[in-house]
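Self-study notes.
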Amino acid sequence: MKKSFLVASIALLSTSLAFSAHARNLKLAHAMPLDHPVHKSMTWFADEITDRTKLRVRVYPNATLGSEEASLQMLQNGTLAFTKVGGGLVSSFSEQYNVLSLPFLYKDEDDSKRILRSEIGQGILESSENDGFIGLAFLASGSRGFYSNTKIQTPDDLKGLKIRVQNSPIDIDTMKSLGASPVPISSTEVYSALQQGVVDGAENNIPTYFANRHYEVARYYSEDHHSMIPDILAVSTEVWNRLSVEDQATIKQISVEVLDVQDKYWDEYVAQSRADIITAGGEIVEADVQAFQDRVQPVYQKFVQNNPQLANLLESMQNY
């Protein structure tokens, strides 16, 4: 009897120790390369948690553990603690994030930070708790512009052009409202699609345009700033609920501090990318932003019609 009790006690202790070790060692995955601002800021985030708690966070870059979609799924089942994902992708996992994909939602990048880092943004981040993950921070990822082998400075320049977009209803509606023909294809196929004429242009932020060498097949980058979709630093709800209140508070504080770190690295990255694009033979052109804004109102009307439950959130963001 005593022997059985001893064996059971040892087994229970071993299980407890294994769980404790698992709880202390956490994984953070993202899909960006080592020289990307996201990797630098996520490494800082992980190091700060390691230094200021008894937790240990290991960073897995370059989609080592899978795509952004796979990472979100791992957050939902608790096999991954943290990840960085694009806001457009998160919208397919949790409802309130959909509003972030609307075109010209902010006056400029400073305005986007002001709104997203307010109680409104915090509400969006927390809204996904029951979907298996909690947003910790909105990370700056710049604004998106069109690029093609012809200059796109007004919506009329888009008329009839086949433009690659993400497979998102809002992105597709936005292109249609601007007179373009949207072509949803994978991001990994954009270069060859431009090269072979499958599409006439695409849209993204300046660093992505440069990093993917799209300037080689689409010389002109237009700064129309039609979209400012942030990246999201998220934590698994299951993992979060296993942490102590003290560790949760520390991680929340670090999540606030990492915003300035990401901003610094991102601004440097954009400046360097702009210079490198010019050196490589690309050209950055100004666009008539107001003309683009005037064309996208039907997108908002359709969004509210299809998502009446998000109308108040959208209104609060527009009036903040």
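Second protein, same conventions, sequence then structure:
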Amino acid sequence: MGRLISTVRIFTLVLTGVFIAHIFAAPPVHAADQVDWQLWEKETFARANTENKLIFLDVGTQWCTACKWMHETTLSDPAVISRLNENFISISIDAEAQPDIGERYAAWGWPALVFLNPDGSQVKALRGNRMPKNFIPILDQLTTAHQQNKLVADDPFPEADQPADGDLRQLLATATAQLDDQYDIANGGWGGKAKSSLPAAIEYAFWRSNQTGDTLWQNRALQTLSRINDLMDPVWGGIAAASLTGDNPKSWADGVIPEKKTVVQAGALLNYAQAYHLTGDHQWHAQADKIVDYLNEFLRSPQGAYYASQDGNIRQQSTPSAAAARDGYYSLNDSQRREQGLPAVDKTIFADINAQLITALVELYAASGERRYLDMAEKTANYLITHHLLPDGWYAQTTQDPAPKYGERSVNRLRELPNRQKLYLRTQSRMGHALLSLYQADNNPRWLQLADRLAKGTISYLLDLDLGGFYSTPITGIQLGDMSADFKPFIDNAVMVSFLLDLDNYVGQPEYRRIAEATLRVISAPEVVAYEGRYIGEYLLALDKLINGNLLVSVVATEVNDQALALHSQALAAYEPAKILRIEPPGKYPDRGEPTLYACTDELCTNPISDPTQVIPEMRQFREQLQQIDHSD
């Protein structure tokens, strides 16, 4: 039976190892005659069981400073290597390349150093790197305890076997209160001392204010974004990974962790675009452009996709903390930095991260009307379609671009990339949103066809037909003690729910909505939602969308002429995060002899609008009317 397993994405993902003594720009990939790394596959676990060996998991990311230190120093130490190869089956996993496993072990930060019994049950998990002098005793103690049958399996993950059957509105109220309780009123953002952008929480704050008319959360979202400005590189642009001084009422900048992850850029770009769309305040457009400029200068591939990350420093050197890189290299101007050299770039292309960038760029296009953002999004999408799309309609997670240009330094990978044709839920859910955002922007049926094909392929391979919900990847048959390794990741399922609800509104396939609701109930066990803490923005968006629905905006026209395009353009420019926008022929709505726009919920519609100049004020007035309706029943 597939189980839901929640792994909270606590800040150790970026904070673990910040105070490590070394930062490496290009650590070597270890040869096969050193640590005998194996793949995460059924045969590896079967071998561990047959040989009665403990399993050692090294899970991390390429941008992680502590991971580089762990591989360069500890996992290269002869005494460590001999112990691992003699007494353990060792598996090394890139958490971004294999998001199913990354999701499972995210709670321990990167690197997550996890030890399993031969049957796969977890016995110990360490957060962050260890020096050889600290790691060797741990290996010896585990080996001795295993030989003496003294190891006891722990139970690290909340899990739920049955879907939640409670009232959806009560689930929404409980989860909303959970997120509200973690807002830092004094300093902005969700959490305490350690903070990052948390884009889904910001997005939900905007959505919630739009649905209810309560400006409190709109203001808190804007307050948080004003603090995220502190994480912006003042020279090159781009948002730093996180801050260790998120409880500082004056600035988060003093605690900036300088690594630049593309997924962080995507989230911040989306939020800045949403803020600009809502307020029309050009400061948010300017901040968004700083991210766009940074991405295009440092992380864009020749073919229009975006690389995974850029290191926080430029060379091997001793540093007492991330502050040394910030106050040293990052205090320099552009020419001074370039004279010293550029931080290395991980030139892996992850489809899920690029999909999030597509969605953000389309939102910036809608907010600004500047076609260049849509052109960038379409070029990235076409790269993914050319290089990642597979015959059954789903998308591979990884590709690698050509060798770096002269003068650039690309990082060597710490961990091997898996088979690129493996199906991951995270990739499909994010790509589905990207395709629908493109369809909404330009009404090209190609995007909708690709999105529908993706949904069908994902449902075919990943949906649990018995209980509902989507597995993270096709069934592996791997057992982790009494628990199956085949699980249903919380956030990825929530994102998939939102995608299916939107897709149903476009293609009129009620089965998508049925699957979406069943999936949402599978991930709504109270203990699982509570365990997620403040990382429930995607879940709240999906739940709110399921309960309260979208605003369906249709331009009805017998031909797509200038008037129809003008109506569509104005509807796209209108701030309405819940809108589903399309141009369609008469049928559902009458033919009035000229292109006409209708905006409708399940219960109410605007008056027909044929004058493009009236679209934005009419949609704004309609939303204000909807905000007065009591949806509590």
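Instructor comment on the second fold: The radius of gyration is 25 Å.
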